[in-house]
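Readers outside the structure-tokenisation community will struggle with the description of the input data as it stands. I therefore recommend that a typical entry be quoted early in the introduction. An entry of this sort, consisting of the sequence and the corresponding backbone structure tokens, reads as follows:
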Amino acid sequence: MDNREEKITKNIVIALSFGKRYPLVLDENRLELYEPLRELGFKVIRQTPGDSDDRVKELAERGSAIVTQNTNDFIDDAVQYDYDIVSLDKLSFLDGLQSKKNKTAVQIKKALRESNLSQRKGNFVLTLYNNGKWKLKELSV
């Protein structure tokens, strides 16, 4: 195996293990991200439409992240239930493309990787912005 093949293989393994260890729970208003995020290597949990916010919190309990455009619905209980939040509140455009080329899903993956959120201790809100940037804020009790 040459260096290029080794690097590609290593990146694929890292991407898959990253997504498997850090499941993403989709809020009801972002279910269209299910397939694109799965294609990018994430374990994605989707709720049944009509489920309560409490049900979403239960699905995300202990080390997952809720992907939502309604951060205020989940922020108060994040520490208690031990989940993080990927906030799409600041995005004016959400891609509906059903493939791994979905721009919103790619932006989520990039922000999660760059922020190293899955490796951090504590609970955080990762806010994504239109310009591709992100902001990480630690939550406290």
Remarks:
- The first helix runs from residue 3 to 21.
- The domain at 3-139 is CATH 3.40.50 (Rossmann fold).
